[in-house]
Amino acid sequence: MALTGVASANAASFETEHFRFVYAPERPAMAQELAALAEPTFGDVTRQLGALGTLELPKIEVRIAHSDEEFVAAMPSGRNIEWAAGVAFPRLAIIVMRISGTTRFEVADVFKHEISHVVLGWATGHADLPHWFMEGVAVHQAGERLAERWQKTAMATLTDSLPPMNTLVDGFPADGTQADFAYAQSTAFVGYLIGRAGWPAIRTLVAKLRDGAAFDDAVGSTWGVPIATLEADFREQVGTSASWIPILFGSTVLTALAGVAFSVLAVRKRRARKERQARMNDPLDDEYA
Fold this sequence. Notes:
- With 289 residues, this protein is α/β, with parallel strands linked by helices.
- It has helices spanning 29-49, 68-74, 107-123, 131-142, 146-158, 176-210, 215-223, 227-242, 245-249, 251-263, 266-279; strands at residues 12-15, 19-23, 60-65, 86-89, 94-98.
- It folds into two domains: 1-123, Collagenase ColT, N-terminal domain (Glutaredoxin), CATH 3.40.30.160; 127-289, no CATH class.
- A five-stranded mixed β-sheet has the order 1-2-3-5-4.
């Protein structure tokens, strides 16, 4: 299956209401499995983010790769993001899924995560969104390890290493350890916003962004206080959660847990951050894993 930005002549494809699946003709099973999930998942995502109204939407092209070579060929950017199980290009309405032994059993969550990126881009009129918001919303919509990520954020407060949210606007750090915590912190902050006012507030925010409001202004008017105030309260809540960790686990166990959390994904995420840095000056910059 040679895909270089568009489907090659020898790739097979079929369509559902909102999707077009492109895959190697000798390997149709995953396309069929994702197709069975696609429309219900699209409905769930759009209901949470708000109606897309009368927008004339293209079909989302889902390109399914079973090897690194197929994955690179399927990427509009032509890059291999080694750690990614899926990548979304909202402006192009393209999702590239990498199917392997390590990603096979999380494919439904990954697919929903990538659909969230595309739909959020559409729903906001491709507004200029902070990276932490895009990733945090997608993680929450897919339900990916939410409690674990809150705990990881709480642990960071114990060493006073939680960076300001405005450092996560354009991307995540290149360092693998810091990047892993950036994902956790983004998820935790979006979870805090949802916890204050629910998904209706997210839908209100999305509508304001679609109407042209700046992100910080839209957040302030939706939640009734400036985003800086929200962040300060979020940090206080996370700090309160963190205060229980030494009591529950003890300082020695806590240190061990932190060491594991810091190191398990460090190598993989370091490569990921290098990819993100390389993208920052790339014209095809709406690439979200």
